[in-house]
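A quick aside before the break. I want you to see a complete sequence-to-structure record at least once, exactly as it would be stored in a machine-readable document. Don't worry about memorizing anything.
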Amino acid sequence: MESVSIITLGCKANQFESAAMEALLTERGYTVVPFEQGAELAIINTCTVTAATDAQSRKLIRRARRLNPACRIIVTGCYAQIQPEGIAQLPGVLHVIGNMEKQHLVDILKAQGPCVQVGDIGSEHNCPDLTIASFSEHSRAFVQIQSGCDAFCSYCIIPYARGRSRSVAVDAVVDQVNALVAGGYREVVLTGIHIGNYGHDFTPAMTLADLLTILLEKTAVQRLRLGSVEPQEVTTALIDRVQSSPRICPHFHIPLQSGSDTVLQRMNRRYTTADFRQTIDQLCQRIPQVSIGIDLISGFPAESDDEHRQTVDFVASLPVHYLHVFPFSARPGTPAATMTPQVNGATAKDRAAELRQLGADKTKAYARRFLGQHLDVVLENRAKNGLWQGTSAEYLTVQLENESHSAGEVVDVCVTGIAGKNLLGRLVEAKK
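That is the input. The structure line, written in tokens, reads:
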């Protein structure tokens, strides 16, 4: 039995697809080992959001060869989709396969000699046919419900790497969730590239809120969590669906990217800060303890000190739980890469640091709201301090003493304190 390691960069969609490729290989007798062990077959599932992630992918290819000079290296993912021929020239790379070709991994491995199999993803009308029954080393499982994106934000290469927005058939999503529930998973995260666009390509069209209704009816999943949803797609119907069901986590991750309307225009984002505030206000009115996370890009081309200050002030005024902040990194092939003037890298990092500190303050303030309250927590693993830790429906990390329950169980925890970014709690009882 040949050993294989799979290392994954980037988004939850990539994580799901890596788990599906792992399932395909284990069914054929491959033994999955840690990357650092130096497997005979190394699969690198890449990201291409920035030039920096491209460089990280190349670094992993070189590292795979150092760990085992005789290993066969397969490169896939978004970087492989965008730059297949360049990757194929890197020492040690045997096969380069595109995002749609992941479903044919086993057949591709039978090929004699090196090959590049990367199709025209822009012409695809379906998602890859990939499924999982388990999610290695996770207590919560991801399910891909959609792929591709039609937005074409000025900084983003993903529409070229993932193709147009395509939705996974409803029955296939239901079957996938049921398989994971049968495997013991209590929480399933619905993920994709642009999940708020789910069902728009169906005839008749349907929505993400419709899919949630069907999953609640046709599966026994204990907890459903949404992946990232664009602000203009957080509809009243979607909020209604989340608010009305205790089985859907009251957690929304909503990309903002900038708190300046002029920067949003240059980004080709399809909303204003006033639109965004209206969405956040509606969420907080309907779901008082809702957890809201946002993405931000600092140092976007031509971002002035005043535009940065607009972002800081706008975010400071929002009742959000956490921030994901990224200094702008020019991605070749996107309009933003050629915009002028480009903001100095050090300035972008300084602005990111200011926003991250604001995010840390927001996280602490949100966490303090739950002192003395009971939270349902999916147990995950032991932290370095020896305590068990898990994730609440509100996307809070909770640590507790526990010797009677296992990873994957949902337990009732009374919150007793705060330690850094984490809540501390006392185990009350297991949730059946």
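Two observations worth writing down. The domain at 140-368 is CATH 3.80.30.20 (pyruvate-formate lyase- activating enzyme). The chain has a mean pLDDT of 95. We'll return to this after the break.
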